[in-house]
Write a sequence for this structure.
């Protein structure tokens, strides 16, 4: 739901080429030992997208990556150096709050 809202508001559309690249990335992770030409990977990816269920899975995963990348860019991290005792105290307070 959150991803859909971010994708809609930020117009994070997944192009066909991005979808092909997502499938290729997944295939290369599954078959790490295989050395194929780029065109062979593309052909395998296109065939993989023939299955509507798999295509939707890859589309959602690609959209998740885009939404997460956008969200990460919106966050400003503030680094703070604290002692080990202060860290433990913060963890204790968080744990108390969550129980």
């Amino acid at each position: 739901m959150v991803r859909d809202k971010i994708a809609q508001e930020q117009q994070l559309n997944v192009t066909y080429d991005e979808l092909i690249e997502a499938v290729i990335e997944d295939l290369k992770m599954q078959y790490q030992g295989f050395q194929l030409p780029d065109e062979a990977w593309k052909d395998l990816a296109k065939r993989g997208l023939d299955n509507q269920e798999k295509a939707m899975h890859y589309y959602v995963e690609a959209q998740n990556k885009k939404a997460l990348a956008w969200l990460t860019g919106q966050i400003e991290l503030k680094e703070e150096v604290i002692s080990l005792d202060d860290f433990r105290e913060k963890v204790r307070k968080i744990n108390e709050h969550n129980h």
Remarks:
- The chain has a mean pLDDT of 90.
- DSSP finds five helices and no strands in the chain.
- Residues 52-74 form the longest helix (23 residues).
- Residues 10 and 70 are 8 Å apart (CA to CA).
